[in-house]
């Protein structure tokens, strides 16, 4: 019998995702996909409406089916979180309970600290139609509320799981917020200041020879404006080479004799 391929989940502790009385197998499967996208695999189900196992959940999970297959099922929410040191509950409604309320963004870092320093943690998600009951919310020490459109805060179950799982993942994910990607090796390297300065010096010299700076006192501001135009584009080294070639081609191109109609239009203007 072939050995199952292990789940691609990073080492280290992670929070459990607890779906309380989920109603649709498809939503469970899509929630499992969202979890695995973000390095989570501990899926717990409390009294799923259509029973368990569920073929629709397995089909919707696609390549995250292993998360569904190893999901643990409980009769009550209390059982699902019995060993947890921290419990978070997602809710869109105000509750008559005094609790800390975090945004999903703040939850990511808080969850990371909790599982690292305090012990196992879980995030509760209520059923699709009515959400968690007050007694289930009471099991949590912290609430999570997303600052969405006040007139429409409803989320699909898998969307809600993805929102929290994504913030968990990115809280310690090292990818830069912005980067330049190029299909060619080394062509995406940002131009160095020296390379940029060489291009600007060449462009300025050509423009000077062409009579562009015809008002001397305005020249410094005109040069700064040109520099800012190109600097905003943040050119790569390869693009600076292309700009050099463009300036060279324009400078060396023979003067084009304008056609009579163009001359007449200029005179009319």
């Amino acid at each position: 019998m072939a050995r199952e391929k292990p789940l691609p989940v990073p080492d280290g502790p992670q929070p459990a995702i607890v779906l309380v009385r989920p109603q649709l197998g498809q939503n469970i499967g899509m929630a499992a996909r969202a979890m695995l996208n973000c390095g989570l695999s501990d899926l717990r189900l409390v009294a799923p409406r259509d029973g368990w196992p569920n073929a629709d959940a397995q089909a919707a999970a696609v390549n995250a089916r292993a998360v569904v297959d190893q999901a643990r099922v409980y009769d009550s929410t209390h059982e699902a979180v019995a060993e947890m040191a921290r419990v978070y509950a997602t809710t869109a409604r105000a509750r008559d309970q005094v609790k800390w309320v975090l945004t999903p963004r703040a939850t990511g870092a808080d969850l990371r600290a909790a599982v690292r320093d305090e012990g196992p943690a879980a995030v509760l998600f209520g059923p699709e139609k009515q959400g968690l009951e007050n007694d289930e919310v009471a099991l949590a020490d912290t609430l999570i509320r997303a600052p969405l459109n006040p007139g429409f805060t409803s989320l699909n179950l898998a969307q809600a799981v993805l929102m929290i799982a994504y913030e968990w993942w990115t809280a310690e994910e090292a990818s830069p917020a912005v980067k330049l990607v190029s299909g060619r090796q080394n062509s995406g390297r940002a131009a160095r200041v020296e390379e940029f300065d060489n291009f600007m010096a060449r462009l300025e010299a050509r423009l000077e020879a062409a009579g562009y700076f015809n008002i001397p006192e305005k020249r410094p501001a005109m040069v700064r404006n040109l520099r800012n135009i190109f600097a905003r584009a943040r050119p790569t080294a390869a693009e600076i080479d292309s700009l050099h070639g463009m300036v060279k081609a324009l400078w060396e191109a023979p003067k084009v004799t304008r056609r009579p109609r163009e001359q007449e239009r200029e005179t009319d203007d």
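Residues 106 and 171 are 9 Å apart (CA to CA). The chain has two domains: 16-170, 193-268.
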